[in-house]
Amino acid sequence: QPAAAGAVASAPAAVAAPEPKPDDTNAQRAKSQPGNNAPFWRAVRESGQQQGYTSLPGAEKGTLIQSFVQYPGSRLTTAGEAWRQVRNQWIIPYGGSLLLIAVLALAIFYKTKGPLGGHHADTGRKIERFTPFERAAHWANAGAFVALAVSGIVMAFGKFFLLPVIGSTLFGWLTFLLKNVHNFVGPLFAVSLLIVIVTFIKDNIANSADFVWLKRAGGMLGGGGEVPSHRFNAGEKGMFWWGVTVPGIVIVASGLVLDKLVPGFGELRGEMQIAHMVHAVAAMVMMTALIGHIYMGTIGVKGALGAMKTGWVDEGWAKEHHELWYDDVKAGKIPAQRSGQPAPGGVASPVARA
Amino acid sequence: MLLTRRSTATGPNTSGLVNSLARGVARAVPTMDRRAFLRRSGMGVGAGIAASQLTLVKKVQAADSKAAADGGKKVEVKRTVCGHCSVGCAIDAVVENGVWVRQEPVFDSPINLGAHCAKGAAVRENGHGEYRLKSPMKLVDGKYKKISWDEALNEISQKMLALRKESGPDSVYVVGSSKHNNEQAYLLRKWMTLWGSNNCDHQARICHSTTVAGVANTWGYGAMTNSYNDMQNAKAALYIGSNAAEAHPVSMLHVLHAKETGCKMIVVDPRFTRTAAKADQYVRLRSGTDIAFLFGVMYHVFKNGWEDKKYVEDRVYGMDKVRDEVLAKWTPDKVQEVCGVDEATCLQVAKTMAENRPSTIVWCMGQTQHTIGNAMVRASCLLQLALGNIGKSGGGANIFRGHDNVQGATDVGPNPDSLPGYYGLAEGSFKHFAKAWGVDFEWIKKQYAPGMMSKSGITVSRWIDGVMEKNELIDQDSNIRGMFFWGHAPNSQTRGLEMKKAMDKLDLLVVVDPFPSATAAMAAMPGQGGNANRAVYLLPATTQFETSGSCTASNRSIQWREKVIDPLWESRTDHMIMYQLAQKLGFDKELVKNYKMVKGKGGMDEPETESILREINKCVWTIGYTGQSPERLKAHMRNMNVFDVKTLRAKGGIDKETGYKLDGDFFGLPWPCYGTPELKHPGSPNLYDTSKHVMDGGGNFRANFGVEREGVSLLAGDGSHSAGADLTMGYPEFDHLLLKKLGWWDELSEDEKKAAEGKNWKTDSSGGIIRVAMKNHGCHPFGNAKARAVVWNFPDPIPQHREPLYSNRADLVEKYPTHDDKKAFWRLPTLYKTVQEKNKDIGKTYPLVMTSGRLVEFEGGGEETRSNPWLAELQQDMFVELNPKAANDRGIRNGDYVWVKTPPMQAVPEFKGIKVKALVTERVGADTVFLPFHFSGRWGGVDLLPYYPEGAHPVVRGESVNVATTYGYDSVTMMQETKTTVCQIEKATA
Amino acid sequence: MARMKFICDSERCIECNGCVTACKAEHDVPWGVNRRRVVTLNDGQPGEKSISVACMHCSDAPCMAVCPVDCFYRTDEGVVLHDKDVCIGCGYCSYACPFGAPQFPSNGTFGLRGKMDKCTFCAGGPEANGSAAEFEKYGRNRLAEGKLPACAEMCSTKALLGGDGDVVADIFRTRVLTRNKGSEVWGWGTAYGKPTGGATPAPAKPETSKS
Ligand SMILES: Nc1nc2c(c(=O)[nH]1)N[C@H]1C(S)=C(S)[C@@H](COP(=O)(O)OP(=O)(O)OC[C@H]3O[C@@H](n4cnc5c(=O)[nH]c(N)nc54)[C@H](O)[C@@H]3O)O[C@H]1N2
Ligand SMILES: Nc1nc2c(c(=O)[nH]1)N[C@H]1C(S)=C(S)[C@@H](COP(=O)(O)OP(=O)(O)OC[C@H]3O[C@@H](n4cnc5c(=O)[nH]c(N)nc54)[C@H](O)[C@@H]3O)O[C@H]1N2
Ligand code: HEM
Ligand code: HEM
Ligand code: SF4
Ligand code: SF4
Ligand code: SF4
Ligand code: SF4
Ligand code: SF4
Ligand SMILES: [Mo]
């Protein structure tokens, strides 16, 4: 009997330890290489993709450590750290510089060239450039944008230029306020942007005149004064497409995600990081573009502001800046007055009357 | 600010953009005070909680301002013990002006060294009790109405007296509690005796009753032999049917330490548990087949001659019979067929246990809660006896008990088959207590219905049958008509669907509990054709933090809890309620005769807990509850630092307050702590340990089953006596005759002689016999005998595997059938074969094995812990663990809702099943599912919230698994079968 | 100055959530905010291990670097704390934190999260030590009372060690030596800058904080 027992007793010992394999589960590894938990620590690393168990409800509660990623401009590291690198090493410094450079360039431009236009004398005859609806849409949009830009800038850069000046209590309070402004105005901006795009898209479709305009950079090159354009010149169209519509849509989309208003998005930190980077880059682009636009719309071009303020422009202004449009109006292809609003000074265009 | 305030309105949580915008705007106010912070947390289920924490803050503030008026804060630290499990972790409660504001770890506690699991670290919530019952209530027209204490006590007592008159004292049933401290548990048994019935029980019945019976019948006492701390000395530990990491988390502190110094850990469980995760070897077995596995292991032990032959020879009776049976019947093929574990695995377990001695075994509910629980636990004992591990430090049977004081309540509390200290229901026992209580025995006898005094009562597991069973079939006059749930949940007993019917049929239902809500909701929930005159009362009891008293941890150490705070709301202590009801029922004088009365809640009288303990000290000799005077216990609590963590023994130490010398005491004077306090027995850290002198806590197996059986001596072999004993052979228990025979009688004083004349060591009220035997002669008062491998008075003297009543293995039912039906078993007819045969093919409709058990965050029926937001947050949904394969076959994905259906639901067609979430996990095998049993408050997919007393509902509610559990009771103790039954699972659509 | 660190010994952690509720109770942390949580990997399979995670008080803390209002600060003991009066609840810290430590009382629709809350290493906040204001915003300041984090002090198995980096590393090293395995230190590489990732035999000597 002892002999038989001995044979049985040696049975488990005879089972040789299996060879360790790189893709062992932790259980297998515990047998093949006791004490080596590498598969477990790999699982820890991968808990961003392959969640662990935790009874707490909520997204990513089972993630021990964020997944490793490499965002454009970052090292391969945990997503949070990668995002931090993109934001702190690229978006903030370069975005900030971009904005500063834009402002600086315009200041120099203004210093050297001064405001454009004013070469044609006023005729006293007015053309309706923007209907009240168009103006309302524009200003709502503009207002929202400014609010967003200011609040966004404070969020992104405030700690460099405001915090040292006003101290953290006040700065925190202010930023908290602005952040809320930003988060609530954002959705409003989304709506107004859509209206602006729909309203102005027709006149921003490129045509042959735009190529001429572009070739001569709107008249800055080659002399000969401003290049004739339709209702909006190629520069404005460019701004419409590349400074407003495209980044606007991107910003709105990413912003809505950041605001957790898009169902199915915004629960995961990875989504938020990407949304943020997209948002911030587009915001920098758009702000830069719109700094230009705002410059042109205010002090850059004489009379331009009036157009958006009152809706009317003088025929002289129209001829100087948008000659082809002026011609169409004159030719009756476009009515000089499209809305029922009274013209300033009650002087309606004779053409329109005709 | 207006906006902010508006947002606090706790209206219905309509979602939607508009609403979130509105809420959003309101929140955008840039201030952040504490309240806003709390309020803002109000999401989802937590909606009500922020508000509750608010009042909490207010309370503290209120107390602060009061203190300011009094000129300063009063900060006190009260030492108490966690009220959840039997580990017995000490807690320092910081009380500021009567408000429990903080909880600090007690690093000095040798038991827990400051450590806590989730429940222990969150007990402070009990001191706030936002979801507690705040005043007495009565069910009126389906709704709970507040009433005064006077009304409640008057009406309840009148009803009771009326029931008594009509149907006798046995028509009232009282379920007591393992949550009561020793004094309250003892007082409740006394209360029941003076009322005149044995119809009382508590959680131990459905917890470790099979252990207590099985183990006590094997070697003497039905308790954990060693301690959590002693497990540090183990070289191997076999956990079978225990998930200690969740159920006794702080015990893992000691075991993991042992493991780090080389202890091999084996876990045998149908599930891969958190405990299994820490094991060196995990063995998956089919639920309900532990005997096959254990005998499969013993097969290799015997085959290889690994048993401790000398030990078995000297100290065990009948092991040869077991050996023959095991070798013949439990060959590896049979073992594998029954439990699914192969030969190599069994061999390895045997080898580990044999080669790493002392090796210990741990079991818990995985073994006890079966129709064959009594046999399973004995199979575990047999393995340990064969290996010679019992009575050794590092070995032993480490039976992890349940509730914080289930050990104490079992020892001295409301059991239907014994008086405190396991004194049987013989007249002699009643006389012993009548004398100790100062009450006339004849008077007590008159209180009982004729002939019922010595008849074991109905068990808590069967109270529903006591109500529903045909009157002619039950072994007492009347059916049960009045029920007390005095610190016990309803959803912890099986057959919930039938329980609802029983509850509706009662004349009187009284719930005495800080959190009575599960019973309350179930009682208020509409039923069909119930008793129109039913009266339901809820009485707010205090928790253990609002009173003082002692509680017995699993290792038999007794700890004294100081009162932390005054009773909250209108709650009263359990012993005050017992006393006040006794006043109305007319036995108050008898109840409190020996006690000092002190002022409790509202300046009303209640018995002093210390004096109740002193009464216990004076009469519970059997298990050595006599040496633990309040003074000694309190000295231990104050000087925890002097006790060694590994041995639990004090090294020096003098209590500053009393001058008591602690040196040599074991922490908490683990019972048996024999003799009077003056004898200074140090307590017994490891039972039956012959390597120590009896006055050092040593011992041997008990002589409790006679001296001889079929010509074989039952007394221990020569030389196997406790160290230093004058009697070096086996000897019977001590009584006046033996003392005289040995010529030691004259060592008694004159007074002692008077008390001891005609008595044995258990009934000698002077403790003299014990003193002489132990102190003068190093002998054990309960004798020195062999452990019994064969328990001849049990249905299966040698443990037999028998399939559960509901088994999905018809083939094995054939081979391993259950017992025959029983008549008048604990007063009730009890079915075995009838049920099993009827359901032989049940596996075709219900193919999955259903088992149940614990989550670390919740405790018991769970009302208390699910009302604690810190815990409730961690487990917000009732679920079923389902193997990916089983889930895939049913088109179920993780997180889906599913219906769990079981056989009893066939009788109730409108009941679709219990609706729970699927947790798809490898923890269980493809044929088994597991459900936690801590939930209640949902019923067949419906939330019972409307039926709760207002404000007293748990934060998290879920379906109770015990609504789905089936019939089945242990053949010795009436333990309910909660660990092995069958079910089917379907995906819940919409 | 001691440099405070956490070690969670995955060979010991039993997922009992004691640390979680200890934190909740000590600081009255509201529902939904989880300063600490326990995650189990390989759940239900051999090789299963659990880790308790909270703020690691990183040496070069990403949260701190991205905060738009610079409300984080580091104590002399290397504990990373923040000022709730200044916090705007933008959530950036939670995007940046590798461990998912920052928590918010609200869900963040319209960016409304409420003030960020996270593990303070039981060191309170900028208010006066032990003041009511500090307690209400940040919970208890145990460090100021000369105590260590509640979660670590109450850990059921002493898996979670929190305190002076040198001391906890030492305790851990001894433990590793006796049991001869399980030497990996959860998260130290990421949090404190020394590579551990998974395979170093003993805990890296804790570096002292730079700031
Ligand atoms: N957190 C928490 N702790 C508690 C309690 C609580 O409610 N919550 N309650 C306390 C009480 S009252 C008690 S009694 C203890 C109970 O403590 P335990 O008994 O350890 O807990 P359970 O989860 O009921 O069951 C233990 C294991 O038995 C397994 N099991 C099921 N069937 C079988 C079987 O046939 N054979 C074997 N070998 N195993 C099986 C289950 O899968 C489960 O993992 O816990 C105490 N501690
Ligand atoms: N399916 C299934 N069922 C089971 C089990 C299982 O594993 N599976 N386990 C069984 C086991 S082991 C047990 S022990 C039981 C546990 O189940 P129960 O013990 O019935 O459940 P608890 O919720 O712990 O009940 C204790 C009650 O006492 C109250 N209480 C607390 N302190 C006090 C006090 O000081 N005074 C008074 N009067 N009341 C107080 C609590 O509020 C609570 O309502 O469940 C059993 N049921
Ligand atoms: C078009 C104008 C917008 C600009 C210029 C802009 C700019 C910015 C900037 C600069 C930041 C800060 C980035 C940083 O600190 O790193 C930011 C953040 C953010 N933006 Fe915008 N944004 C614009 C529109 C929107 C819109 C339309 C939405 C939403 C619908 C939105 C939602 C957000 C959110 C949610 C954040 C995160 C910051 C926080 O929650 O505190 N933004 N934006
Ligand atoms: C405060 C800042 C702004 C000022 C002062 C301003 C001013 C002007 C003015 C004067 C015009 C008329 C130019 C013309 O008559 O050709 C104009 C046109 C326009 N603006 Fe603005 N603007 C501002 C902001 C914005 C913003 C934020 C947007 C969009 C995001 C925007 C979109 C447009 C568009 C789409 C047109 C029509 C021209 C085109 O479609 O090419 N503007 N703006
Ligand atoms: S529940 Fe048990 S292990 Fe947990 S703290 Fe309480 S006594 Fe200790
Ligand atoms: S763990 Fe997260 S929150 Fe904590 S210091 Fe590191 S980055 Fe910051
Ligand atoms: S949520 Fe608060 S702490 Fe976090 S980055 Fe934003 S402002 Fe800073
Ligand atoms: S250190 Fe303090 S605050 Fe941090 S998780 Fe632990 S208990 Fe909570
Ligand atoms: S208390 Fe300790 S063992 Fe329990 S979950 Fe936390 S770290 Fe793990
Ligand atoms: Mo139990």
UniProtKB/TrEMBL annotation, chain B:
Keyword terms, alphabetized: 4Fe-4S, Iron, Iron-sulfur, Metal-binding, Molybdenum, Oxidoreductase, Signal
Lineage, broadest ranks: Bacteria, Pseudomonadati, Pseudomonadota, Betaproteobacteria, Burkholderiales
Stretches assigned to the 4Fe-4S Mo/W bis-MGD-type domain: 75-131
InterPro entries linked to this entry: Asp_de-COase-like_dom_sf, MoPterin_dinucl-bd_dom, Mopterin_OxRdtase, Mopterin_OxRdtase_4Fe-4S_dom, TAT_signal
Family stated for the protein in its record: Belongs to the prokaryotic molybdopterin-containing oxidoreductase family.
Domain of life: Bacteria
Main location: other
Cofactor: [4Fe-4S] cluster; Mo-bis(molybdopterin guanine dinucleotide)
UniProt organism field: Pseudaquabacterium inlustre
Locations listed in the record: Cell envelope
Protein name per its UniProtKB record: Formate dehydrogenase subunit alpha
PROSITE patterns xref list: 4FE4S_MOW_BIS_MGD (PS51669), TAT (PS51318)
CDD domains: MopB_CT_Formate-Dh-Na-like
Statement: the UniProt record of this protein carries the keyword Ion transport: no
Statement: the UniProt record of this protein carries the keyword Iron: yes
From TrEMBL, chain C:
Location of the region described as Disordered in the Swiss-Prot/TrEMBL record: 192-211
Annotated InterPro entries: 4Fe4S_Fe-S-bd, 4Fe4S_Fe_S_CS, 7Fe_ferredoxin, ET_IronSulfur_Cluster-Binding
SUPFAM superfamilies assigned to the protein according to its UniProt record, in alphabetical order: 4Fe-4S ferredoxins (SSF54862)
Organism name: Pseudaquabacterium inlustre
Membrane-spanning segments: none
Keyword presence, Transport: yes
Pfam families named in the record: Fer4_11
Keyword S-adenosyl-L-methionine: no
Signal peptide (residue range): none
Gene3D superfamilies the UniProt entry points to: 3.30.70.20
Record protein name field: Formate dehydrogenase FDH3 subunit beta
UniProt cofactor(s): [4Fe-4S] cluster
Record-annotated 4Fe-4S ferredoxin-type domain positions: 4-34, 47-77, 78-107
Key words, A-Z: 4Fe-4S, Electron transport, Iron, Iron-sulfur, Metal-binding, Transport
Underlying gene: fdh3B
